Amino acid sequence: MPLAPSDDQITIDALTWDPYPIYRRLRAEAPILRVNSIGRTILTKAADTRAVKDDPARFSSNDPTTPMARAFEAHTLMRKDGEAHMAERMAMAPTFSPKNLKTLWVPAYEKVLNDYLDRLPRDEVVDLFPALAGPLAARVLALILGLPGASDEDLQRWSQALIDGAGNFGYADEPFERVAKANKEMNALLEARVPQVKAAPDQTALSVMVNADRPIPMSQIVSNIKIAIGGGINEPRDALLTILFGLLTNPDQREALMESGEWNLAFEEGVRWVAPIQVSGRVALEDVEMRGVTIPKGDVVMTVQASANHDEELFDHPERFDVFRKKASHQSFGSGPHHCLGTHLARQTIGRIALPTIFERFPNMELVDPSKVVWKGFGFRGPLNLPVRLNG
Amino acid sequence: MTRITFITADGAETTVDATVGDSVMRVARDANVPGIAAECGGAKMCATCHVYVDEAWFDRVGAAPEDEQDMLEFAASEARETSRLSCQITLSPDLDGLVVHLPESQI
Ligand code: HEM
Ligand code: HEM
Ligand code: FES
Question: Ligand 1, atom 21: nearest CA belongs to which residue?
Fold first, then answer.
């Protein structure tokens, strides 16, 4: 079979600022396309993205061509497959058990949320990105990981440094220097925390990994904590901001949910509408035939779940935010062996607590000017700002 | 060869051939039975492979262990006594003819 068609027109800039019209065109015209500017083959149809992620035997997560290992100073679970991946994933999984969610993390989230809502200024315009969504995501993560001493500012700075370092495909110096400094600070913090959780074990991710009967190596514990810092803040932050934007620009839907209390619908629709993680990369381990083309062994494919979530075969008017749309599976949490460990946590906290609490406390909240909200991101996507008046 | 029958919430039946040793989830996915999302691929992490085991079969399949019951609380459709995660039901010869009911929704 022939190779997939290739493209020289699509730029990283275009994918970063306004990807959805591009994906719509590709779903119709070239659902498997080699995009030269990013050096990868992108898949934009829901059936294809799911098939790749569910097939780790032929599509590995171990993409050696990303700067991720250098940024993390290690290989992390996200990039591993099979047994090695499961060992590390299961090391952290007990923290996320349904019982811990219910008895520990959901109550902790409620408390932090209410404290952070209390301190928002009432009679001026507030940007909910820095004033609420960022710090809330950071604080909750700190509690779950077992890093209560880390400040919201440090956590957000480390997270951004890791993301910029791991995304530093140009191998520029500055991001690597910034992430090296962040690594030093995180290492110091973890070194101090390990004896403490050994002395007083709890259900936090650090403690569960350190105190396991057969612990994974310390270096892997450290890198897993780092990946959770790098990847556990921006998705809940961006999901919350995206859903708030959707509800604030669709007052009829917001009204209806105020009545019905089905805030979980807003959660699912928000993460479908703009997936906080838009793409997942995999490497073909052998020649694979799909949709009439051959994906050659060694090719790096980007499965675009953002596009899968807008696939016209599953969703009518996918570009609309519509909490009452006909249910269909979105892929915002991935699928297969790397399926998000934080899925239920995010669902329970954002969908069942944050949304009702925020709209009950601020029933007249208004977006200052929807056209001023800036959206950005090819890998991770969300609004960069969300200026509102809390009391309308 | 064993056979499994899936019955959707609105009563549509699909019967498929299955191999001993496979999970009920895997059988459903391989045969494209609609109504099993199985997002985590069988890791007991997603609760999108929820089924209600038919009353007549429940004794043979057995109730969900405690950790599975905890996860079932996150299922989109209400968990009942006969609820199981289908990725955790492994087919044995004595499950030939098994009947499971699909919930209204997995998401
Ligand atoms: C909870 C943690 C994280 C999750 C769930 C997550 C998820 C993802 C997903 C879904 C992708 C798409 C491609 C792939 O799987 O290779 C991805 C890629 C990527 N992630 Fe992670 N990530 C996490 C943490 C991080 C962190 C901490 C960083 C940065 C420091 C990072 C940097 C990247 C980069 C740069 C890519 C693009 C790689 C490529 O082009 O192949 N991720 N991540
Ligand atoms: C709305 C919020 C979130 C979204 C949309 C999201 C999305 C995702 C996606 C798409 C992946 C799959 C990566 C791949 O296929 O390569 C993933 C993996 C992961 N997520 Fe999440 N995530 C969210 C929240 C969280 C939170 C709060 C945590 C932790 C505190 C978390 C922890 C993880 C981890 C550890 C993985 C890696 C699992 C593995 O490789 O086995 N996520 N997430
Ligand atoms: S497939 Fe996810 S719990 Fe069964």
Answer: A231
Question: Residue A295 pairs with which residues in a beta bridge?
Answer: A288
In chain A, which residues touch B (CB < 8 A)?
Answer: 54, 93, 97-99, 102, 268, 327-330, 333-337, 339, 341, 343-344, 347-348
Q: How many domains does chain B have?
A: 1
Percentage of chain B with pLDDT > 70? Answer: 100
Q: Which residue of A has its CA nearest to B69?
A: A98
Contact between B45 and A333 using a beta-carbon 8 Å cutoff: no
Q: Per the structure block, which two tokens stand in for A136?
A: 């809330």
Nearest CA to ligand 1 atom 16: A281
Note whether B74 contacts A329, CB cutoff 8 Å. no
Read out DSSP for A245-271? HHHHT-HHHHHHHHHH--HHHHHHHHH
Encode pLDDT of B10-46 as tens digits.
999 999 999 999 999 999 998 988 889 898 889 888 9
B51 domain residue, yes or no: yes
CATH of the domain at B83: 3.10.20.30
Domain holding B80, by residue range, is: 2-101
Q: Give the separation between CA A34 and CA A36, rounded to whole angstroms.
A: 6
For CA atoms A265, A277, A60, B68, give the dihedral sign.
Answer: negative
- Looking at the domain assignment, is residue B46 inside a domain? yes
Single pTM value for the model: 0.88
Q: Answer whether residue B41 is part of any domain.
A: yes
Assess if residue B107 is contained within a domain. Answer: no
Prediction ipTM score: 0.76
What is the nearest CA distance from A338 to chain B, expressed in angstroms?
Answer: 7
**Residue A176 burial by CB count (10 A; 0-12/13-18/19+): exposed, middle or buried?**
middle
CA distances to A16, A110, A130, A272, B46 from A340, in Å = 23, 22, 25, 15, 9
β-strand partners of A304 = A279
| Cα angle, residue A357 at apex, residues A355 and A359 outer, rounded to 5° | 70
On whether the CB atoms of residues A372 and A387 are closer than 8 A, the answer is yes
